[in-house]
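For the sake of clarity, the format in which proteins appear in this thesis is described at this point. Each number in the token line that follows is a code from a learned vocabulary of backbone shapes. One such record is shown here in full, so that the layout can be seen directly:
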Amino acid sequence: MRYNFPALKLYFPVFSTLCIWLGVFACAGWAAEPQVSRLSPLAEMPSWRSLDGYQESITHEDFVDLLDRVYAPAGAWKDVIRVEADRALVMTTAGNFWELRFAESRETAKPVRRKWRARSELTGRTKDQPLHGVKITLDPGHIGGDWAKIEERWFQIGGSTPVTEGDMTLYVAKMLAERLDALGAQVTITRSNSRPVTSLRPDRLTDEAMKSLVEKDQAITPASVKREAERLFYRAAEIRRRARLVNARLKPDLVLCLHFNAEAWGNESRPTLSEKNHLHFLVTGAFSASELGYEDQRFNMLQKLLSRAYPEELAVTESIADAMSANTGLPPYQYIGTNAIKVGRSPYIWARNLLANRLFNAPVVYLEPYVMNNREVFARIQAGDYEGVREVAGAIRPSIYREYVDSVVHGLVDYYSPK
């Protein structure tokens, strides 16, 4: 029996073309994308066209090197980026892609377009004003104040002064701003008090909280929704609002994310004091394959990579790490697992994908000195700020806040001083 399908002849060219494209993506090992873009909580849809200014600004070799060595090691990028000889195809929404055309060579590469300036692009710095004209934004980590308990960055022992990281980082930021300003820097701060920058509050994030719990395959109960809404408030909404402020209004050459570290302390009213104390710094990188499954994170990674933020981030971080490790004598923290990788020459510096360092367009130095619930550090926090040195926890020491500030200032001066 013979069948006659005249319509098949009409649609065969379209059908065959579709099969070819499906075969291309299948051969590349790309999984089928959902019809709706997968975004991180509270993320906006990326504008891929905004990256077109980077066309022909990077070679094939440099692009792959940065992916493999810094941004997406162990082939984490291969499910969402297809690299060809003269271009890269980056998966966007519903199987579509954005095309990046490579430069033929470093010599013919087009200039990198960005709003921040590297050290080599700054002018007017002098021995007395080594930071002249450098635009530095300070981001005091967390919020503090009445929000410290919700953030889980609060603990207290008996009648001692509560340890609240958000208030401590703000104190460091204000002291640091004065020092940097005196050296010629143009300093801005993402927050000036212990109140949220975002106008969102947990009670307005219940729908997003339920979506997030479904995404993570976790049970939805009144208690879990409340906890997740609070987490999205301080870990997503607050940081995203600061990023919009930094990128759209402040436009710095460098962002310093100021933090204190901690080990697990258990009950916040009866915390466990630790013998561990350490120091480390983070630059943007080490995106995992699962993280790159989110379209906004793919976009953020490429924005960082193509702007060439990494060389500047690493160089200035190494200078601050040298100064702070010498001043504090703290050992380097060691990550265990795959969420961070060692980069550069310093044992103190790791690449990791955090919301803050990937969202801020400028180079970011993310500082994590001191373990707040370490016995000596706790005693230093209780001693507060003071001039000069005094005996604290059995040793003659400066204020922990001034030691922090001095270290950052010394590192920045060493890096930016005219050579």
Observations:
- Residues 1-29, 31-35 have pLDDT under 50 and may be disordered.
- Residues 119-195+245-416 form a domain with the Aminopeptidase fold (CATH 3.40.630.40).
